[in-house]
Amino acid sequence: QKKSCRLSAALLGEDSEISQEQLYELLEYAALGKCHHAAQPSWCRIYHQSHLAGVVVVVLHEMSQLHFYRFYLQFKHLRKVFRHRFTLAPSNFPVSLYGEGTNLKPQNTPQGLTSTSSESITKSSDLQCDPIIQRYGEKKQGLTSYTLTLEEQKKNDYPIEGSSECKGYISTECDQQRTDSSPLFGLDCEMCLTAKGNEVTRVSLVDARGQCLLNELVKPESTVVNYRTRFSGITKKMLLPVKTRLSDIQTRLKKMLPHDAVLVGHSLNSDLQALEMIHPSVIDTSLLFARSEGRRFKLKFLAKAVLGKEIQCEQKLGHDPTEDARAALELAQFFIEQGPTKVAELNLEMLLTAEKLAEVSQNKAVLQPQGCGFQEQLNEPPPLSKPCFLDCLQMTGQKPLLLARQGLDSSGLCQSNLSTSNKQILQRALEDVPLSKFSIIQFSLGPEYLASHLHAGLYEKVRSKLTDMLTIYAGPFEENFCMKSVKKEFGRCGPIQSLTVVTETFQPYVCIQYEVLEAAQLAVESLNGAEVAGSCIKVQRPVTAAMLDCNVLIKELELDVENEGVIYVAGLKKSLTETDLQEEFSQLKDLETLFLPKDLQSGKHRNCCFLKFQKIQSAVDALEAINGWTMKGSELRSRNALAPGHLWRWIWQMNHSNGKQGKHIFYEKMEQLSDSEQDLRKKVKKLDHHIKKLYRSLQNNTLCVVLFPGVN
């Protein structure tokens, strides 16, 4: 295919945790797309969604990140094929997805899809009376058909070139002929009341993809009379350090806007007046979504009713101009792409009336004494509620497929097929998934492997093994060796969590526990056989039964797809900021991202960082170049990355969740694996094989998501 679907999600380090809402955004856009008014996810991007063959969600029942890393070697296919891996913040997402017990309320579901009853579908004859149809007709047109004419601009108080009222105003000089492919830009300003009148205090500009190009605070020329903090979000404290003036913003906007730019905003005339700028081509969404008798819909209502987005939330202090600019832009894009008829069919007037009635009903319910007015409450229309995810799919003619061991779908919204084993589920999936646009496949290890005591045992084994992998023993040293020298030398490999002297041996050894896996591995690789504190030392990890496959695990972690093109750099001075490092490493070719780990309690950054490169070869070249570099008097050490950001965070939490640090014994009794864990490894390996078989059977351009939802 010429256009194949791609998922782009460049998150590194602390950003690798996503919320339930973010996962929902991804699935909703993948399943519904723009034609059903779903918006691109805020945290990643799906390219060519219309070419998607389907969406498959594989749920590994009651398994979590704990299982993934305990059986990391067994999940051979899963970790090699799935390139994007994120920690899902605690949520009830899988249950909500099935529609069991409670419906998930999506963030971006259009209100126009809340009902399929005959009353909510506007009849063709009624459309002729709709102000939108009367103004624009029924046929779809290009964007130039929706820009305001000169007369309309004059009528709606837009700054006009040559007008006596606009003396001293600056022109954007965007005087090129507009076409239907001219670029759209969303613009919004926040104003304060000054002695002069309304003056700009914040400006936001977004491009056609919703990317923020400008978000700047502006110092008013005159004394501020009222900051209007409730609406503007601006306070006196915020403006104190600001040096930017209106003239600076005017200059920047002139440079940023191409000569055929079309500005989009909601009541954009007030923004341009406050900016004291003239622009010839505008789309005003307060006029675009036409109403009778000169009334206008509020931006907040349109964003919710048309885009399914909540903006200008009461919890926030003031409006976010970037959010408003993006909402206005998306509204204009929706109108242009869908055309007047589709917009009229949303029946916005009815939705607004229903919303107001719902608010009245809600207020009455709050004020109504208990046991009174029951009949009146029955007569009130029910408040508008957004549909759950499965509702939305059904309304688009898609009945999701659910294959599981037990009846998770109590809503009746899925084609449910219950099976008694993972093998049966797989067989049904191979037959039925190609026929469904949205499938939920649930595999389970079985109730005998999900008991709480087994889970607790797994947790302790994983925590213990990670602790051992983070720990090294160094020695022997002379009796009166310098501990400061040892700490300094080993500290160059990365952040140290603890450093203790082992006194049970004939000569002293030092036990060092690091905070990141790369630091421990770097110490083993670079300091074994080196001379430290006057002694030629040996550096090794603890010898335990669990550590016998440590080298295999390290190698597999290094080859993990998530670590491709990522290197670890240690020996940084803590005084260096992220900006300093960006500058120092700027000469490295194809550098994409720099991640500076921070202590999750103190917020202070560590003496190490991770660098992600666009190409694997560039990472290899950087590795050679960096080793031996001196930065601000400190020698750098580096190696390939071992732990993705989510694993780094998880290790940190595990190390700090236990009140006392685990003590390390140099030699431990070799223990045989329990029968139950041996069985569990076999089960996990078979599960990975099932996922491999299912994955290989999927059509090209299928989005596949695997969820480890956890126990609770």
TrEMBL record:
Query: Keywords assigned by UniProt?
Result: Exonuclease, Hydrolase, Nuclease, RNA-binding
Q: Which GO terms describe its cellular component?
A: nucleus
Q: Which PROSITE patterns match?
A: RRM (PS50102)
One function term, GO molecular function aspect: RNA binding
Q: Where is the composition biased (Low complexity)?
A: 114-124
For this protein, the parts annotated as crossing the membrane are none
Q: Where are the compositionally biased (Polar residues) regions?
A: 104-113
Q: Does the keyword RNA-binding apply?
A: yes
Q: Looking at the keywords, is Transmembrane present?
A: no
Q: Which InterPro entries match?
A: Nucleotide-bd_a/b_plait_sf (IPR012677), RBD_domain_sf (IPR035979), REX1-like_exo (IPR034922), REXO1/3/4-like (IPR047021), Ribonucl_H (IPR013520), RNaseH-like_sf (IPR012337), RNaseH_sf (IPR036397), RRM_dom (IPR000504)
Q: Where is the RRM domain?
A: 470-544, 565-643
Q: SUPFAM superfamilies per the record?
A: Ribonuclease H-like, RNA-binding domain, RBD
- Listed name of the protein: REXO5 exonuclease
